[in-house]
Design a protein that fits this description.
Mean pLDDT of chain A: 83
Structural class of chain A: mainly alpha
Oligomer: heterodimer
Structural class of chain B: alpha+beta
Strand content of chain A: under 5%
Low-confidence stretches of chain B: none
CATH superfamily of chain A: MetI-like
Distance between the termini of chain A: 26 Å
Number of domains of chain B: 2
Strand order of the largest sheet of chain A: 1-2
CATH topology of chain A: MetI-like fold
Largest interface: A-B, 19 and 24 residues
Number of helices of chain B: 8
Strand order of the largest sheet of chain B: 6-7-8-3-9-10
Number of strands of chain B: 20
Distance between the termini of chain B: 36 Å
Order of helices and strands of chain A: HEEHHHHHHHHHHH
Number of helices of chain A: 12
Radius of gyration of chain B: 24 Å
Helix content of chain A: over 70%
Number of domains of chain A: 1
Largest sheet of chain B: 6 strands, mixed
Strand content of chain B: 25-35%
């Protein structure tokens, strides 16, 4: 069957494209171009004058402080991605077994996904705030030093945990769907073929989950880079002394709080380049090893 | 190779659903045994219990002289071919076949030799480097069989392996499986709901119904001497005609408004008892005097033969005639059994054959 529609003349097809193009243009390209343009400008402290400064804003990115932020973001994103993927996979494998109350178990696991990032941040803060938090008090009673308000490492650990918790549901859902898409007979064939449980997982289940895993890897990296903003903002505001400031938070801090739109825009462009490069690398090197 | 012995095997699922209710069966060494029955009769469950994929609720299952109830599938030395092939989609055909051997730490050159041998036997040598998704249904089924063959197991288990293939391919694969069995002489257990598959493949047919065995025997046995009404109607196409009747004298039955002769030595039936009689469609002849009046309904043309459908005293009856035979029109036909030996007598209450 011919699925392509053939239009006479050139006007109709272009007219049909217009709504989509308008949306893309106004909501994606225009802001992107604005950002790039902004990144070449410098405003004075009173907002009276704007100068075109070429790459000065980008040159400032080479500062020690910004490189530290990049390093911190890499640590943060790696931890969030690895932890949320592996914990979700573990939970999905457990949920895939036919156990009693599997339905309740699944529902409870999917729940956190419905919690808004800022709310998730506040929830975790309530638990771990040194003077109010239930868990924080318990830790103090056990003699474990804990103060995310002052200790940067504690704070970073806290935002990582909260971000992981938030993302597990999403990963869990996809992993579970992926696991359930593997026919039972394939597992049975492997069992008869003499593969131990562990070996069955690594030689059959894991490779068959690879497409799901690859998709989730991409999504999780983007999540860790961008969508954790709400959690960080609600919990630590990037502090103490920038200990939890990731690249996206730095963009916000510079632009919104610092009023330095040029620097903020330059960071934003840099962040975009990093993400594009990361995704390209994933598709180039990891996707090849995935059989769909 | 080994015999498989089941003793009073039961399977009860949670909620007291009894899938298999006490099956005792011996599958002789080297035989091709087919478990035949309608869906839900417990035949697949029985096979899966032999494979170790389902636990055995009660009774024992032995492969050779080893009771395998608590032994893992991998340790039972069996190979299984699944209905939907169950190939590992991410592995090449070669790796699919080598997987089981690698798990058992077979030396590499031995694996290569065995896979090459099996591939040659099945005619899939040229596909060894391909992934299963690049193969047709028949080729995939061959790979699944190759995966079983390379292992050289004690017992081959087949779980409806042909039902996903189209009709033509099914026939040729059926022949191929039989040819393979003649060559390898391995004990094979084959589950199917297709009576033609059972008749053509089996040395021994096990007809199952409602979680129990109805009859065990050679294909000709279950066809010619069905042990119950269920077997009589399940095997054969069209199914055996059943009519209520009454024994009027030794060797004489009254049924469908006519008189029929049966072999009184073969069946243990009291005079005066109500019975169900069975006659195969090809054993019915037309025109005998004293036969049963037949009300003609319609004709199914099959080319070489035709199947005549109608009723006798309100009970449906069908019979086969050569295509050339002309039937007298109208309702004046009388039908009868071709010979006394063609009449089967069943107990109407239990459904069992009254054969001595």
């Amino acid at each position: 069957m011919e699925k392509r529609a053939i239009f006479g003349g050139w006007l109709v097809p272009y007219l049909l494209l217009v709504p989509q193009m308008v949306v893309v243009l106004f909501f994606f390209y225009w802001p992107a171009v604005q950002t790039v343009w902004q990144s070449f400008l410098l405003e004075d402290a009173f907002g009276l004058r704007t100068d075109f400064v070429w790459f000065d804003n980008y040159k400032d990115l080479a500062s020690r402080e910004y490189l530290q932020t990049i390093g911190r973001t890499v640590v943060f994103s790696t931890c969030v991605t690895v932890l949320s993927l592996s914990i979700a996979l573990l939970l999905a494998i457990q949920a895939d077994k036919s156990i009693k109350g599997a339905g309740v178990y699944k529902t409870l696991l999917i729940w956190p996904y419905a919690v808004a990032p800022a709310v998730a941040g506040v929830l975790w803060l309530f638990m771990f705030q040194p003077s109010l938090g239930v868990v924080a008090r318990a830790m103090r009673n056990l003699g474990i030093p804990w103060n995310p308000m002052l200790n940067g490492n504690h704070a970073l650990l806290l935002v990582i945990l909260a971000s992981v918790w938030k993302q597990i549901s999403y990963n869990f859902l996809f992993f579970l769907a992926g696991l359930q898409a593997i026919p039972r007979a394939v597992h049975e064939a492997a069992a008869i073929d003499g593969a131990s449980r562990t070996r069955r997982f690594w030689t059959v289940t894991f490779p068959l989950l690879a497409p799901t895993g690859f998709f989730l890897l991409t999504v999780n990296i983007v999540y860790a880079f961008f969508d954790t903003f709400g959690i960080i903002d609600a919990m630590t505001g990037g502090g103490p002394s920038k200990a939890t400031e990731t690249l996206v938070y730095s963009v916000f801090f510079q632009g919104r709080l610092g009023g330095n739109l040029g620097a903020s825009a330059a960071q934003s462009v840099a962040l975009m380049v990093i993400i594009v490069a990361l995704t390209a690398v994933q598709f180039r090197f990891i996707e090849r090893k995935v059989t769909y | 190779m080994a015999a498989v012995t089941l003793e009073n095997v039961r399977k009860t699922y949670t909620g007291n659903v009894e899938a298999v209710r006490g099956v005792s069966l011996t599958i002789p060494n080297g035989s091709f045994t087919v478990l035949l029955g309608p869906s839900g009769c417990g035949k697949s469950t029985l096979l899966r219990m032999i494979a170790g994929l389902e636990t055995i609720t009660a009774g024992t299952c032995a492969i050779g002289d080893r009771i395998v109830n608590d032994i893992e599938p991998a340790e039972r030395d069996i190979a299984m071919v699944f209905q939907n092939y169950a190939l590992y989609p991410h592995m090449s055909v070669y790796d699919n076949m080598a997987y089981g051997l690698r798990n058992r730490r077979t030396p590499k050159d031995e694996i290569e030799r065995r896979v090459a041998e099996a591939a040659k036997l099945l005619g899939i040598e040229e596909f060894l480097a391909r992934k299963p998704r690049a193969l047709s249904g028949g080729q995939r089924q061959r790979v699944a069989m190759g995966r079983a063959i390379v292992r050289d197991p004690q017992v081959f288990l087949f779980d409806e392996p042909l039902s996903n293939l189209d009709a033509k391919l099914r026939v040729s694969m059926r022949l191929e499986i039989r040819r393979l069995h003649n060559r390898l002489k391995a004990t094979s257990i084959f589950v199917t709901h297709d009576q033609v598959e059972a008749m053509t493949l089996a040395d021994q047919v096990v007809v199952m119904n409602g979680g129990q065995i109805e009859q065990v025997g050679a294909p000709t046995d279950v066809y010619r001497r069905p042990a119950s009404k269920f077997v009589a109607t399940f095997i054969g196409s069209p199914p055996m005609n059943l009519l209520p009747g009454k024994i009027v004298a030794p060797g004489q039955i009254e049924a469908g408004g006519g008189a029929l002769a049966y072999d009184a030595d073969a069946f243990d039936a009291r005079v005066g008892a109500g019975v169900d009689i069975g006659i195969r469609a090809e054993d019915i002849v037309v025109g005998a005097s004293g036969g049963m009046p037949f009300v003609h309904e319609f004709v199914e043309e099959l080319g070489a033969t035709r199947v005549i459908h109608g009723t006798v005293a309100g009970h449906p009856l069908e019979f086969v005639t050569p295509a050339a035979a002309e039937l007298a029109a109208g309702n004046s036909l009388r039908v009868s059994a071709a010979s006394p030996a063609a009449v089967h007598v069943f107990d109407p209450a239990t459904g069992r054959s009254l054969r001595r």
